[in-house]
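pipeline/complex-builder :: batch 7 item 3
reading input block
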Amino acid sequence: METRLRIFLLTVVLATLPGCATVRHWFQRDHQAPTAATPGEDENAPAPRVVDPEVSRRKITVPKIRSRNIEVGLDYGVLSIEDFGTHPSYGITAAYHITEDFFFQGEYGRSRAGRTSFEQLNGGVNLLTDSERRFTYYDLSLGYNFLPGEAFIGRGRAMTSAFYLLGGIGGTDFAGDTKFTVNFGAGYRVVPADWLAIHITVQDRVFQSTLLGSAKLTNNLEARIGTTVFF
Amino acid sequence: MLRRAHHFALAGLLLLAALLAPAVGAAREYLQLFVTQPYLELHTGPGRGYPVFHVVPRDGSVDVLFRRTDWFKVRTEQGVEGWASQTDMQKTMLADGSPFKFDLGDRAGFTNHRYEMGIFAGQYGGATLVSGFMSVSFNSQLALEGALGQYLGKFSNGVTGDIGFAHVLAPEARWSPFVTLGLGLVRVQPKATLVQAADRTEQSAYVGGGIRYYLTRRFFLRAEYKAHWIFTKRNENEDADEWKLGFAFFY
């Protein structure tokens, strides 16, 4: 008798167990069952959170790093125009530092030519008109920081410095004509603050001139001192 | 009078420079980076030869003040300021743990960059040419570029200005060819001794091509040819060949 009851109960349990496996589906009938159309989402969906934090995510902006490679400034000096004497000159310089060794530099400057010794000896002779005596140069040069180093003032102050070489091409407006001009020179730069630099430069501008009869290469040496600001 | 105006301009520029200086150094928010290597070396200047005077230990942080060429000026938590090299800065990370990434200026940059600039020497219709160019890239292959040049010849001098598109054919190659197409203006200044002495400005169009050769770091050489058609106000149009070789960089 007991054995038959046991067999009966066992049969009931066996019959209901597969039914229990469907229990989880009973309650999901009310919810929107996940459709078979989006199986991919199911796999990638994050695991359900135990605690849902009520914190809104803050958007972090990474500050941009400023580049300070551009140097712009003014300079003043003396320019010796071959055959026409030495006179004050002033100009604007702009440079772009490409690497720690090289930089590009653009220069624009002006000066005025004096009288040649021939004109001085022959009182009334004027080789050039007043406006033709204006000397304007502009050029693009490549610079190389040849001897970088540091300069010191006293015990507590060090400034980075460099001796640099310059070479480039450009033009010169002089005596009513524009001449193709090659320039080369050297300079010394001291950087007392991150934004400021002081330069001393000596540069030779060479162009061909036919002004005094035959064609010849003229050397026009310039020495100048300048201040630049880094941007 | 003119001299006085010059002095005025000079004084004005000096004043401007003086005024701008504090603005340049004004306070701003800096990027904070964390050291992941055993230490980060700080040099006294932005160059390989400047001595190391301070080190920031692992997990220490620095604020990046600004960048000059391949060097970063940084400030430590203690307020020590020094220069860290680009190579060392590659091994730092941001506050969220992600590595610090920046434009390195290497071969990959040659293929893909935003700006180019350079200077050329060459010939323009038989006259000596000096010119400079600048370009803005839209992607690794297409760029908008402008060039300004001055030619100095026996019979005339002149200024040329061009604007056009450049298409780089193989941007990833070291020898990378390109083709150009655009429009321009030519200002012709005949030498005073000739009969037809008036200055004139003409419109022009050009088609050309050339090759770029990557040198090192941010530098490359650029050789270029342009065939110009100059639309004159006379009965016949002129044409001029432009050949030039230059030195350029990208950033």
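note: The first helix of chain A runs from residue 2 to 20.
queue -> next item
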